From TrEMBL:
Keywords recorded for this protein, A-Z: Membrane, Transmembrane, Transmembrane helix
Protein name: HERC1 protein
Superkingdom of origin organism: Eukaryota
Organism expressing this protein natively: Symbiodinium pilosum
TM region(s), chain numbering: 33-56, 68-92, 162-190, 196-215, 317-342, 354-371
Length: 372
């Protein structure tokens, strides 16, 4: 092998499952979307030809059309199962998978001598990697080996690209995805039990209110961590970075001096050019919005299936399609998620006397107002 597409850099203090989840979603979102589309299409077709039974009734009133719809949840279930299955299957995709260097897999972890050889020759792997893929957590810049990988990559591979990916973005997206599926399935239960009256609306509102607060609180915490990471870079000093082994510390210091002239020069590089390079807002990428639109879109397709089975006129069907799947699922939901992320990131740290719980309560109430 002549080189690697990615050198995955991470710290060892962050729990492994968080990093696995982050990498899995980063690499598997396309597979997730493709398999969701296949699962929903197959489920929709099987319901249309009466292979899958529609087991409850729901009343519909849409632009002059009024009818009792035969309903089910097969599209929602089929989409969820196929999407998660597609995500898991993406790990075994033999086509187009990038080559990666991951220390836990590429450096021997059982033989101390081989481990040391691998660690001290890591610069060679950095020099032949197209991208340095940083799984960024709040511990990352406090670990000297992580800082070493950054410094080595920029000097040994000046044309390479450094990609910073805050790992909590994928965790947040996963939480939202699960929450939206729970909303969709509960909506089916409430429809089947109470039809579409005031009780259904009240129960859905209660569920959204219950779940929204911990979601907002969690992401607000992660946003503050991100702000702290950026603030730490503004005051970065390599002498303050932690290392468990004094021999490793001296080895890394010597390497940094040979590349940057002095430790102070490297610290200035991190505070200056590198800090500008990573000055990016904390956003949920568009690709994740595409994935997050699928749970409620599946619910809408289940309802559309009932409308078609009930013989809805084209005019009424078009009105429903534009108002719910398009306007609500594809436009409003991503906008609401983006607004919550923006509020979590931009709300000043000292607002409301610095109370994190008050801050997230205000954000949650604002989001509930949008929901109403």
């Amino acid at each position: 092998m002549d080189g690697f597409d990615r050198f995955i850099s991470h710290d060892w203090q962050t729990p492994g499952w968080r990093k696995v989840l982050s990498l899995l979603i980063q690499s598997g979102w396309r597979s997730m979307l493709i398999w969701w589309a296949i699962g929903t299409a197959v489920s929709f077709f099987l319901c249309m030809v009466d292979v899958l039974p529609l087991f409850y009734k729901s009343e519909a009133r849409i632009l002059g059309f009024q009818s009792v719809l035969p309903m089910g949840c097969w599209v929602t279930l089929g989409g969820a199962i196929s999407a998660v299955g597609g995500l898991l299957l993406s790990m075994y995709n033999p086509f187009g998978s990038p080559s990666c260097f991951l220390d836990a897999a590429c450096i021997c972890q059982t033989d101390d001598l081989l481990m040391q050889k691998g660690i001290y020759n890591i610069g060679g792997c950095l020099s032949v990697s197209t991208n340095l893929h940083v799984l960024l957590s709040r511990h990352y810049f406090s670990r000297l080996w992580c800082v070493f990988e950054l410094s080595a990559y920029r000097k040994l591979n000046p044309s390479g690209r450094i990609i910073l990916t805050p790992i909590h973005v994928e965790a947040f997206a996963a939480n939202i995805y699960i929450w939206l599926h729970a909303c969709g399935l509960l909506l089916v239960v409430f429809r089947a039990s109470y039809d579409q009256g005031g009780i259904t609306v009240l129960l859905m509102f209660a569920f959204v209110a219950t779940v929204l607060l911990p979601l907002s609180h969690s992401f607000r915490q992660r946003s503050l961590d991100w702000q702290q990471i950026m603030a730490d870079l503004d005051n970065f000093d390599v002498m303050d970075v932690q290392c468990r082994n004094d021999f490793d510390r001296q080895y890394i210091y010597a390497a940094i001096r040979s590349w940057y002239g002095s430790l102070d020069a490297f610290s200035e590089y991190v505070r200056g050019p590198f800090r500008q390079e990573v000055r990016v807002p904390l956003l949920v990428p568009f690709k994740y919005h595409c994935v997050l639109s699928t749970p409620m879109l599946s619910v809408s397709l289940d309802y559309m299936l009932g409308l078609l089975k009930a013989g809805i006129p084209l005019r009424s069907l078009l009105a429903y399609t534009l108002s719910v799947p398009v306007a609500l699922n594809l436009l409003w939901c991503p906008a609401a998620i983006s607004l919550m992320v923006f509020a979590c990131e931009q709300l000043p740290k000292r607002s409301f006397n610095g109370s994190l719980y008050t801050q997230t309560t205000v954000i949650s109430l604002a989001m509930l107002a949008l929901y109403i």
